């Protein structure tokens, strides 16, 4: 069989899985249950009754059915995974990588339980699309009552994003949520870094996912706006200092302090000379932050 060509082909295969899932009986349903339990690379998708999952090695072949899949059960996702990545990038406007995800894993285990199957004892990765990323953020116990102080008014920019028909609606929604450090953007940043890069605080409810290159300067480019490389994960005080330009970092991660921050404030905050580990991507975006807040002569 040939590989899928576009998102429509992917949706056709999801529909084929759903038809069998909803049948809830018969030989094809038993094949389906086994297929789900053995999944290693999975695409979560939303249904009328919650979230479901489709394996790469099924979804990546054009015009697939459970009966056809049973004839080539031995195939893995080495062909289908890169093709699905290409299709998702074309559909949503940025590259989506399949990665481990604790929240998606928890929902996958529950999904398997609803099918009365036990998932294989193996590591799994998931593609998190904008719609699913926002859904998972809303259905994660660890993400309730999270802090966000990004409440400034960017109404006109939000409207321009909403009306940007060059981007899919689900991507536009995720971009708008990312302005206040929420939704898919927050999940990707938490997944990438896990704790405050300065204090090492790992209580996710107390951490803020903040853009390095401000949202207003990247809101029409999902490759920048939803990219964890264009983000810091910080506790609230450090986030406020960074966001207002009282501090920045060199390419090597050395702390840079603004002359606008008084010695008294520095002592009260306990700020000391320190350095952090930046990714190459973060270092690249940090140049924009330094330029914007007048740190060019500090490096």
- Which term fits the overall shape? elongated
User: Which sequence of SSEs, written as H and E, runs from N to C?
Assistant: HHEEHHHHEHHHHEHHEHEEHH
Q: Total strand count, please?
A: 7
- State the helix count: 15
What does the largest sheet look like? 3 strands, mixed
Percent of sequence in beta strands: 5-15%
Uncertain segments of ≥5 residues (pLDDT<50)?
none
Briefly note the structural class of the backbone.
Answer: mainly alpha
State the helicity in percent bands.
Answer: 40-55%
Number of domains: 2
Average pLDDT taken over every residue? 87
For the largest beta sheet, what order do the strands appear in spatially?
Answer: 2-1-3
What Rg is obtained from the alpha carbons, in whole angstroms?
A: 22 Å
Q: Compute the separation of the termini in Å.
A: 56 Å
Explain what this protein looks like in three dimensions.
The structure is a single chain. By secondary structure, this protein is mostly helical. The protein is 46% helix and 10% strand. It has 2 domains: 7-134, no CATH class; 152-298, no CATH class. The chain has helices spanning 7-23, 26-37, 56-59, 66-70, 80-92, 102-114, 130-138, 155-162, 169-178, 183-193, 215-218, 222-225, 236-243, 263-269, 280-292, and strands spanning 41-47, 50-55, 125-126, 208-211, 231-234, 247-249, 255-257. The strands form 3 sheets. A 3-stranded mixed beta sheet has the order 2-1-3. It has a two-stranded antiparallel sheet with strand order 4-5. The chain has a two-stranded antiparallel sheet with strand order 6-7. The radius of gyration is 22 Å and the shape is elongated.
